[in-house]
Description:
Blueprint: H1 2-26, H2 28-38, H3 47-69, H4 81-90, H5 102-125, H6 134-155, H7 160-173, H8 177-182, H9 192-205, H10 208-211, H11 238-245, H12 255-265, H13 269-281, H14 285-291, H15 294-297, H16 304-316, H17 328-338, H18 345-356, H19 360-364
Amino acid sequence: MKNDATIRRSCTALFVLFCILYLLLFQHDVMCLVQDVLSRGQTTYRPIVTTLLLTTLLVLLQRAVRGLLGFDGRWEAVSYLPSCLVLAFVADIDVRTLRYPLTKWVWVAALAVGLLLLLAWLHRMMWRRKTTRHAALMWPNLLTFSLLFLLTLQLTNHNAAAHQELAAWRHATAEDYDALAAVGERSLETTQPLSALRLLALARTGTVGDRLFRYPQPYGADALVMNRFNRQSTLFGADTYGRLLGDEPYGGESGMAFARRLYARDDTPFTRDLFIAALLLDDHLDEFCRTFPPEALGDTLAPIHYREAWLLEAHLNPAFLYTDDELQPTLDAFLAVLHDDSLTPVANRNTRFRYYGKTFYDYYYRKQ
């Protein structure tokens, strides 16, 4: 009995620790979204309170399963299977549709019930405990917990781009644009809302010219147009984005047209940076150089992506005069790789991306 009580406390402590780490570190932003969706925006997410409340309910669920099926001793950890599945289910919301994959979880629940009943029968009929040594009882529980925790992580939402997107929304709603601009800076994955929010952050912090091509930009200027039907969440959606941006695109309006309209209506550093970003992202190199010539933005003291654009325009259009001794060697090296016929198209693109992937040059020639 004494060993049973020790095993029970040890397993509870291990499960509680996993829940805290899982909810506060791994699924922090997902849980914020879940609460916002379920409460329809009527409550404020409190990470500690939510974690403690959910963990307590899951421990009570384990106690009920243990009392009903009789798992104890070396079988103690098996009684945590339903709690781990509920923990995984809660955070398995689709961040795009705000729905749970119920078909998947119906099958998981059915299999879990069958497995629990089978293990309970084996526990009662075949594998009764033959030792009372604590170590002999704990090792099977540790192995079982390892499998349960891996199962929890596998079944739940672990899409990196989705987690980055939710982190970006969190920083955006707090108007922490420096933190927002840093989200996913080293990642090769992105989503349309994440790209839109980062463009907003770069324009708000005045770093479009320095950081625009540090991120993947598969959407071009259309990243600025937030799809109103992507989400129905109060905190994470087009309404919040429009409030932070100060306006919303018209129906059917492209990102380029939207940025142009904002700049024409109100010439501020923010709208100017958005317009410049749109011009560069949609390859409007000629218009960028005409509208924002070197003397207008600081010439060789301007941010690096502007200088790259001017230098590339001077290469493509001899009538446009611009020199930059610092960046010219990089452009020459890039063009040498671009026109290297010894490389296959795939190898050429990979080489350019490896060495020049965060330059405007590589973005401009990305389709070649």
